[in-house]
Amino acid sequence: MDPYITRITKEQQPNRTEVVRLESEFLVVEVAPSIGGRITSITEKKTNYQFLWRNDALPLEAHPPGTAYDPVFWGGVDEILPSDVSETVDGENLPDHGELWTTSLSYSVVDDTLVTEADLPVSGLRYKKTVSLRPDSFHCDLDYELVNVSDRAVQFQWRIHAPLKVKPGDRILCPASRARVAELSHSRFQDDSPFDWPILSTQPVNVVPEMGDEIDSFHLWDLAVGVMSWHNAAETLSFGLTFDTDVFPYGYVFASYGGFQGGEFVILEPSAASALSLNEAIQKQECATLAPGEQLETRVAIYAGTLSPEKK
User: Is the peptide bond before 292 cis (omega within 30 degrees of 0)?
Assistant: First the structure.
């Protein structure tokens, strides 16, 4: 294969879900446009390592708007937009984990890119994501456009939601200064006071412990730069998200060490709002806002390879 050409192909899953595959010299990335544009796998070709956690007990399938997220959590990289928890905001009933993940996106192949897009009727946002692979590195670029097509200002949460397979000794890296437990009901720790990331009660909470039945959840803020990454214990593989902190000024980490439906994963989440509740973030003036007709453009770069994103 010419290393400077991305090959894009399509295939039907057994349940008729269409997956679009992008392949470069370095990576194979698969996307399901009909399921909110979810990235279903990211594989580094030299080692044949697939980075993303997926629930093999569930089929890859679309769900109707308003579906509860956790019981059908399949995995893969999706996005929480425009809300996380189900709540009423400005008179609109926002669904669990937002409306994007249950939206079927139209798509087209333009040169060496996959372009996905849709209007989100509840939030009034027009969403577009262009997926491309760099020809000379372990990078997948996600270029976004959000437009407020409504006649009112839209305040929203937006999180990139990337669950990774993990083992004890793996490390989660983020140049945040401060953190706190996000949910005491989803934590090994029963103190939600702010602390200096990543040390809580003398313990490095960014190191994956032995598996059992535990869960962690952390809000992160005061990021020096926009990077969240995972390194395996042997320091031979790395997965990283690089992003603009003007768009995603916060981070969120959700980790299941066997405690969430038996899963063993860590979810890295650059976040546009400071709280799980959009109403809480609005009250603090710590969420994203677009005026009528206003457009936001940004890039999130995924690194999935044999070198750390900081060193690449």
Answer: no
Q: Which domains does the chain show, CATH number per domain?
A: 7-305 (2.70.98.10)
**268 with 253: CB under 8 angstroms?**
yes
Helix (H) or strand (E) holding 50: strand 49-50
- CB neighbours of residue 291 within 10 Å: 10
Give the pLDDT score at 10: 80
Nearest 5°: the CA angle 52, 281, 103 is: 45
> If you ran DSSP here, which 8-state letter would residue 97 be given?
T
Q: Which is nearest to 170 in space by CA: 25, 56, 49? A: 49
- Provide the greatest CA pair distance for the chain: 54
The stretches in the chain having pLDDT less than 70 are: 1-5, 307-312
The closest of 77, 87, 69, 73 to 123, measured between CA atoms, is: 87
DSSP characters over 109-159: EETTEEEEEEEETTTTEEEEEEEEE-TTSSEEEEEEEEEE-SSS-EEE--E
pLDDT for res 15: 74
The pLDDT assigned to 5 comes to 57
Residue 219 β-bridge partners: 180, 252
The two three-digit tokens of residue 74, written as one number = 């399949």
Query: What is residue 286's three-state secondary structure?
Result: coil
How far is the first Cα of the chain from the last one, in angstroms, to the nearest whole number?
23
CA distance 178 to 168: 24
Cα torsion 170, 174, 177, 179: sign: negative
274: which DSSP letter?
S
Question: What is d(CA 294, CA 157) in angstroms, rounded to the nearest whole number?
Answer: 16
pLDDT value for 309:
47
Torsion on CA atoms 301, 164, 118, 139, rounded to nearest 10:
20
pLDDT at 4: 44
Other beta carbons within 10 angstroms of residue 202's beta carbon come to 5
